[in-house]
Amino acid sequence: MLRSKRILIAAALVAIAAPVSNASAQRERGAPKKPKPVTDSTKVKTYQTKFFDSEVPLEATLTTNIDKIRHDKGNKIIWRPATWTFKDTAGKEHVVPIKIRTRGIWRLKTCDFPPLRLDFKGSTTKGTVYHGLDKPKLVSYCKNDDTYEQYVIQEAMLYRVYNKLTDATHRGRLVKVTYVDSASGKVNAVRYANMLEEPNAVAARLAGKNIQQIGARKGDLEPEHALLFGVFEYMVANTDWSINGLHNAELYIKPDGNVVPVPVDFDFSGAVNARYATADPSLGIGNVRDRLFRGYCGSKEEYAPIFDKFKAQKDAIYGLYHDDIGKLLKPDVVNETLKYFDEFYKTINDPRAAKREILEQCKD
Question: Which residues pair with 83 in a beta bridge?
Answer without folding.
Answer: 63, 97
